[in-house]
Amino acid sequence: MAVAVLNRNEPAFYCVPARAYEELMDLVDDLELGRIADARLTDGQEPVRVSLDAL
Known about the structure:
With 55 residues, the chain is an alpha+beta fold. It has a domain at 17-45. The chain contains one helix and two strands, in the order ββα. It has one helix spanning 18-41; strands at residues 3-7, 10-15. Strands 1-2 form a two-stranded antiparallel ribbon. A hairpin with a 2-residue loop joins β1 and β2. The chain is elongated, with a radius of gyration of 19 Å.
């Protein structure tokens, strides 16, 4: 459960459990990778198909 720490009734910072923070950071990383992938798909080059086994 997240806890908001207030300073004069305004949020000063939030305390979140480590697991929740890790999940949030994973989501941020996934969003950034999605943006990079979208940008590369719109650059005009032909996509290259690969299998996961080839990686």
